[in-house]
Design goal:
With 192 residues, the chain is an all-alpha fold. It has one domain (5-190). Helix content is 39%, strand content 0%. It has helices at 5-23, 65-71, 76-79, 94-101, 109-119, 140-145, 150-154, 171-180, 187-190. The longest helix has 19 residues, at 5-23. It is elongated. The chain starts with a helix and ends with a helix. Bound molecules: heme C (5 copies). One heme C binds next to α3, α6 and α7.
């Protein structure tokens, strides 16, 4: 009798997570908000990247938010460590991925690609999705600290594979929330 691979899946994930935890800091806290890694800004590699990807297969690695957030339980700010500290949320360094994947699934083809970037000390060339025009000033820090949820602006990322943009990011969109929450609509708050 053959074993249904789908029914074996939860047990496999639980096992992998247990391994990841033991090999990590040894505590569940490795899954929660963390200090940024050195050089972990909005990923230098993203600065000149093309934007507006709706097709997840356009990303260099088939990374799944749904797996990492919903199934494994990793906090958004474990990977996007700058969200409550600065203007950008930040893209995780390949070192952060390797922290788990040097041992977890390290033989899978998609993970071998991750480990190759890590060994070559190259950032993963993620394609940037959101990109406001330069004349707009936006900072994550004040929004996150005021309790605006990631989902209010990014939708249900925990159900996505690669992240996609779900809001227009238009001026009208910014202003309607600012009106609703009675915060600044001063031109100079958002424009230089
Ligand atoms: C805290 C540990 C942890 C971190 C950090 C982590 N992963 Fe994972 N990842 C896992 C586990 C556990 C699985 C298995 C999930 C499953 O089978 O559903 C997985 C699965 C994957 C897979 C699917 C592998 C396959 O082909 O079956 C890819 C690709 C992947 N991760 C990429 C990444 C990338 C890229 C990063 C960094 C941005 C990253 N992971 C960070 C734990 C982690
Ligand atoms: C008030 C709306 C808002 C909230 C809340 C918000 N974001 Fe963003 N996010 C944006 C906008 C707008 C951009 C595009 C910024 C740009 O292009 O300069 C962005 C860009 C990003 C980016 C890519 C570029 C970067 O800044 O590194 C990531 C990653 C990100 N957000 C993650 C998050 C996470 C994780 C949270 C919750 C902790 C969050 N965001 C909360 C509006 C928001
Ligand atoms: C294990 C690490 C990891 C976790 C946890 C994680 N992300 Fe991401 N996130 C990434 C990676 C890698 C990318 C770049 C690939 C992509 O765009 O999907 C990314 C991209 C994004 C982007 C698009 C950035 C851009 O280019 O504009 C947003 C928005 C985002 N994540 C939000 C979230 C939110 C919200 C959560 C929690 C619900 C979350 N992420 C959890 C690793 C992670
Ligand atoms: C879902 C609601 C929401 C959306 C959407 C939103 N904001 Fe905000 N914004 C807030 C709240 C709440 C505050 C007040 C934060 C505080 O109390 O410090 C704020 C404050 C600000 C501030 C002043 C504080 C600072 O950081 O200097 C600026 C600038 C700003 N937002 C820009 C933007 C821009 C640009 C957009 C659109 C790209 C945007 N916001 C979209 C809720 C939102
Ligand atoms: C809460 C933030 C916010 C405030 C306040 C704000 N804007 Fe904007 N504005 C934006 C964003 C975001 C964009 C970019 C929209 C886009 O690219 O679709 C923008 C774009 C613009 C543009 C360029 C339009 C175009 O077609 O590219 C002008 C001009 C402008 N704003 C003027 C103003 C003036 C004048 C005020 C004050 C009455 C103001 N803005 C207040 C967020 C804001």
């Amino acid at each position: 009798m053959s074993v249904d691979p789908m029914s074996a899946r939860p047990a496999r994930i639980a096992l992998l997570c247990a391994i990841a935890m033991l090999l990590g800091s040894g505590a569940f806290s490795i899954f929660s908000a963390q200090e940024p890694e050195p050089g972990e800004t909005a990923a230098a590699a993203m600065e000149d990247a093309p934007t507006g990807v709706a097709d997840p297969t356009a990303q260099p690695i088939a990374f799944s938010h749904a797996h990492h957030v919903t199934e494994i339980g990793i906090d958004c700010q474990f990977c996007h460590a700058y969200a409550r500290r600065g203007p950008i949320a930040g893209i995780p360094s390949v070192r952060r991925c390797a922290g788990c994947h040097e041992t977890v699934l390290s033989e899978e083809p998609e993970i071998l690609k991750v480990l190759e970037y890590f060994e070559n000390e190259e950032p993963i060339p993620w394609v940037r999705v959101h990109d406001l025009p330069d004349h707009v000033r936006f900072t994550h820090k004040s929004h996150v600290r005021a309790g605006v949820e990631c989902a209010d602006c990014h939708g249900r990322v925990e159900e996505m594979e690669a992240a996609v943009q779900v809001e227009s990011l238009s001026m009208g969109w910014c202003l309607s929330c600012h009106k609703e929450r009675d915060v600044t609509r001063d031109c100079l708050a958002c424009h230089h």
